[in-house]
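note to self — DONT lose this again. spent like an hour looking for the file last time. sequence + predicted structure for the chain T wanted, 180 res
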Amino acid sequence: IDPSSIRLQAVFSNDTPVSDNVTTAHAAITPLTPLSGLFSRVRLLCQGTLVEDQNLWQPLQALHHAWMSPLQFRDLCNESFELKDDSNHAAMMLSGDYAIQPIAAGASKRVQMPFITLGMFNQPRYLPGRHLNMTLELELAPDAESWIDETAKAGVAFDYKWSLADCSILASTITLDPQL
């Protein structure tokens, strides 16, 4: 397995119901972070043995995002929730001030997330996937709306409802010829 290629992929759905006092404009979810902002802890186990435990995943991701160049951060965001298409993209790149596209009520979007801070996935050696029996555990952030821009609520009291479905891990695998 090529460790730099490992990604979590899922379908994100905005399940916020629209009613008389909650309009479609109120119910749109605008993420403040890439997909990694949804999780508070990530654990990696190999054959049942704990290899990595990042129990401060969300703040570590925020710190890592701040260290990235604006271009790297833009590419990371576009891999999960897309950035708004702004005519002043050059200024946004220089300032690092990006706005992520809202997801309308009832809409779904396929998103993915690299594991940019897990050491096992950020080293140059291939992983013998068949022999590692890897398990990734992801815990959702306790404050489920901490990664959502709540300005769209405009004073209306309601909770956003969202879900992740069809979750899978993607990776590039390399098969060596036994003749080598």
